[in-house]
Structure formats: structure tokens, C-alpha cells
Amino acid sequence: MFSKRIECLINFASDSTSVADIGSDHGYLLIGLAKLKQDIDLLGVENKLGPFLQLNKNIRLNGLKDRIKTSLSNGLVEVSDTYKTIVLAGMGFNNIKKIIDNSIDKIKNIDEFIIDSHTNLYEIRKYFNNLGYKIIKEKIIYEDNIFYCVIKFKKGHEILKEEELEYGPIVLKEFDDVAKKYFENALNHINLILNKIGISAEKREALIKQKAYLENLLGKIN
Ligand SMILES: C[S@@+](CC[C@H](N)C(=O)[O-])C[C@H]1O[C@@H](n2cnc3c(N)ncnc32)[C@H](O)[C@@H]1O
User: Fold this and answer.
1) pTM of the complete model
2) Which residues, 6 or more positions from 188, have their beta carbon under 8 angstroms from its beta carbon?
3) Residues in the ligand 1 pocket, defined by CB under 6 Å
4) Which among 8, 92, 133, 193 is placed 20 to 30 Å from 117, CA to CA?
């Protein structure tokens, strides 16, 4: 039994035939995929020895040593062109960007990215959009009092509006109960910041605009 976030990552990667999970740590995503599908190439990459040893141990304990390859290496550096789906989960935007920028020549061979960034989703969507990927799946997950947003990008082009970069084109379209809670939380957060003294006029103006957008959005579906 995996967490809702891991289940979502497994689900988003389940139609792929080759998946490299960068920053695998415990390896649950790869273990879940190996149990779900026979015909899938799986690689777990870790750049730290502790998590790398844990990854190998969990793979062994699950009897999946022949199904999942592992690599103690940095980001995409040692990942071969045969891996068409790359997962980067449980990291912040800066690290995700650093990992890709560091191997930018490799992205011509990558069909899909599955991203669970814990920071700056606006920049994440903008960055992948500029790299030539479009969003094909998005899901908001609420677990242990934290909101996560898992995004699947596929090679392709799309033009995203500012609010779509901020909140996600599919999240906005599908608008399920969890997404509603997510927007309510975002609105509360904006109100908290607006009540603080010392924020710049420029930031205040941007927040007021976002607040009006969210109030309108929530008003519409209430
Ligand atoms: C918070 S854990 C997330 C684990 C798992 N992906 C998840 O979503 O639950 C982040 C992992 O990424 C690894 N990591 C960070 N930067 C990395 C890099 N450049 N290359 C490979 N692994 C990296 C860390 O060692 C850590 O184990």
C-alpha cells in the first residue's frame, strides 16, 4: 500500500515502457510499477549513498532485483537514451531545473517528464513549456496536511495563460473536490500575506489580482 502521492506517480507512469526515476530514494514508484507491469524497463538514480543503499535494499526485499536497475549518479548524467519517461519527484524547482539544464542535450530523446515539485509550480510549468513540452495530466493530492501537484508533460507545444501557469490548465478544467480545497487554501494564503505589513506595492497588486481570480473561480463553482 503506497501513499496517494506515490499511487498517482505510478498511475501517471503506468502507460510508459521505460521509466527512469531520478532521486528514487525508497524506490516505491519503481517497485509499484514493476509489480503492475511486466514489459517495462525501470531505472532508479540516486546521487547519495544512504538513499542508494536503501533503494537497493527495498528492491531486493521485494524480489525485484532482475527488474529494476539502479545507478549511483547525478541526475540524468548516466541515464541512457532508451529511457523515454523521466520522473523527478519530491524535489524543488531549482534542483529539477539544475538536473535538466546540466543534461540539456539529452532532452531530445525524452518523450515525457512526470514532475512532483514541492516548490514553484508556476516556474515548473513555464520551464517545461519553454523546453517544448505540454501538460497532458495534472492532479492535486492532499495528504498529511500537504498539497502536492503531480504534472505529466509530453513533447509538444501549447500556449498557457498566466493563471494556467499558476494553477494548472488541467487542474482548472477538472476542478475536483481536492482542487477546490487547494484553491481555498491558496486564497487563505494570499489573504494572510496581504495582511502583513511591509510587502511591496508591486507584490500587493499582483496578489490582489490573484485573489480576485480565485474568488471568482470559487464563487463560480460554489
Ligand atoms: C525527498 S526525496 C524524494 C524521493 C522520491 N522521489 C519521492 O518522491 O518520494 C529526493 C531524493 O532525490 C535525491 N536527489 C537529489 N538530487 C539528486 C540528483 N541530482 N541526482 C540524483 N538524485 C538526487 C536525494 O538524494 C533524495 O533521495
Assistant:
1) 0.95
2) none
3) 22-25, 45-48, 51, 74-75, 89-91, 95, 99, 116
4) 193
